[in-house]
Amino acid sequence: MAERLAAASLLPAVSPSPAPSPSPCPRVSASSFPCCSTTRAGALRLRSRRPSRFPQWVRDAECREELAMAAASDAAQLKSAREDIRELLKTTYCHPIMVRLGWHDSGTYDKNIEEWPQRGGADGSLRFDAELSHGANAGLINALKLIQPIKDKYPGITYADLFQLASATAIEEAGGPKIPMKYGRVDVTAAEQCPPEGRLPDAGPRVPADHLREVFYRMGLDDKDIVALSGAHTLGRSRPDRSGWGKQETKYTKDGPGEPGGQSWTAEWLKFDNSYFKDIKEQRDQDLLVLPTDAALFEDPSFKAYAEKYAEDQEAFFKDYAEAHAKLSDLGAKFDPPEGFSLDDEPAAEEKAADPAPAPPAAAAAPADEKKEPEPTLVPVGAAVASAPVDDNNGAAPQPEPFVAAKYSYGKKELSDTMKQKIRAEYEAIGGTPDKPLQSNYFLNIMLLIGGLAFLTSLLGS
Ligand code: HEM
Fold this sequence. Notes:
- There is one protein chain.
- A two-stranded antiparallel ribbon has the order 1-2.
- 42% of the residues lie in helices and 1% in strands.
- With 462 residues, it is mostly helical.
- Among the domains are: 65-193, Peroxidase, domain 1, CATH 1.10.520; 208-324, Orthogonal Bundle (Peroxidase, domain 2).
- It has helices spanning 2-9, 56-69, 75-92, 95-106, 129-132, 140-153, 159-173, 208-218, 223-230, 275-282, 292-295, 301-312, 314-330, 349-354, 362-365, 381-387, 417-429, 442-461; strands spanning 237-238, 263-264.
- Helix 1 (2-9) packs parallel to helix 6, helix 4 (95-106) packs across helix 7 and helix 9 crosses helix 12 (301-312).
- The protein is built from 18 helices and two strands.
- Bound molecules: protoporphyrin IX containing FE.
- Residues 121-355 form the Plant heme peroxidase family profile domain.
């Protein structure tokens, strides 16, 4: 532990961009309320230091209320934090441990538990000692120490978002794909809300493929996700003094960069590419690590299909990795706003793909036999009558128009029979029928006439 603390304290302070001033109505994370007993020393004071007119118990109650509403992150602050993370990565080469930090916060998710935060996942719980001390998280205290100054600088973002932001940024900065991330994750506020130990995978289980499925299926992920995400081991090293896996050092790790030592899965372990799959497949270099769970990717037939593909085709790997990573980073998270928000002005690639292409002119696009009834325009009764075309049959024999209730109402709900009868009666009273649009707006004319008469009467009366 002492060694880790020393290592962390040697790291340069990161402050490339000034903290943006909190917006007029800042969204603040729970941990940044100085009025609360839960406040960490060093957190920026968002609430003003003006002397309060209220007694402490009132301020505490106010604070509890704010805590209950503790919203997620401020987009401007997240963007600035991303710049700081980039600088941190450049100066400390901490890409791998940031990826592991994000994954270990979200990977505790259990899809069989509905309640938040009991279900685990990306909720910032990994900042608490209670969870950091889980065996699987050995060494992640170093990641927290690196990222804490950025958290302190930007009180308007949550740990949950910051961990995932750091992970996605690390992948991208290492040469990996752009990940279609969203933000707005809410933080848990107390150590008691941490998930129980044992939800993350073990590197040396009895039957690795079964174990991987058990763990990742519990998160709602599938075989493709398992293989793609394992590709994150293209970055980083395993250290015997942390996980117990790997060599003390190899020719690839003895000189760093960063703290020397450990055993990497790939020769260039700060570069994100598909070399992990190539190296695991060949297993030729004794200096490169292959965990039992890594080897399983080329042993299990379903995993193997993906692993082979990724070894051959880096583009396919990047595409699947980006999707799987985005899914992983959302696991179990409670978003505020509920749909989350993106930091990029450009929509992510997959959002674009999901957008419907601009509709071609209806007549040209649809073959004649597939031509659909145009959506009824939802307009008030009178207007519907006034705007209905006289003849939309292209000269064919006039067909009686069916009674389309939605045409005569604001909502899409079907009208009751009584209402239909009433409407029909009203039409028939003025010589029309709802089956055939009237050529003139009788209702409007009558209303205008009544209005005019009323106006004249009042003039005469006065
Ligand atoms: C498939 C099951 C997985 C197992 C059994 C596993 C196991 C391990 C182990 C034992 C280490 C070494 C930790 C140390 O000694 O410091 C490690 C490191 C790492 N893992 Fe995994 N992992 C798995 C999945 C993942 C996933 C899904 C990701 C990310 C998406 C990931 C990212 C990393 C990274 C980047 C490192 C290097 C950390 C560093 O260099 O500090 N792993 N993993």
